Give the backbone structure.
Amino acid sequence: MKGRNVLIYSSIIIGIVALIGYALWQEIARNESHIQTSISGTIKTAPNVTGGVVKTDNAYLILFDPETLIPVAQHMINPFLPPITFSIGQSDASPQASLQGPYRLLIFTDRDGDPNLPSPGELIGALTSPLSLGTESFSYVLDRPFNSFPQELLKPSQPADKPEDSIKGIVRISPDLLEQVSPTDKLIIMLFDPNQGRPVAFKFVESPSFPMEFQIGPSNAMGTKDLVGPYSLRILTDKDGQPFQATEGEVIGRSKDLVPLGTSNLDFVLDSPYVR
């Protein structure tokens, strides 16, 4: 009987060890997959601008397609206390996008809740040369005040969007979801290219009040290519500055059909919780 008990205990121990080993192997495989589909390293500040960072600042990391300069992934770090490690990649892209790389990286800080508008005290680094996915231990330096985005990303000044080149309408919240919207939420309006599987135009609206008018067009385009359409329209609320990552209480609406440029009087409803 004693020998039988020893055999049973040994079998249990072997089973536990096997399960632990399998779990560790799975975790290693997940980590390796994450590394191969991301760019990681450390964010530092140059000595002459170190005093510009405060603990309430956010850091925004954006990957750009090196040819079109269209953003393909975005990640926010909060709180941001450099030097700090970072990772950005497939998990920060839109669900339809499959990152292949290489990509150019830009990092900047945000202090006032509007990452598109430079403000005093904010910092920015250089738009990097193309970096391959799987790059590790990359050192990125915030070395200048954030006065403007890199010139490569700025389009020449242009007149206001023409009706025939934009999409406009009224956006509403479904009554059963209205209580989830707070005054501090941002409204994110995006046009998705169905062929590229990623946004080609992106617009922030601070402190939206519903129902409200909206318009999106060439002045909101990302990268250097002109808008052609038709596009999938997505409008969502954002609570944490991470529009590609769902947070409890965020809501979204998706157009059922592709929407052509020139569409007006569109009645658009945010009718679903934002879930990824």
In short: Helices lie at 2-36.
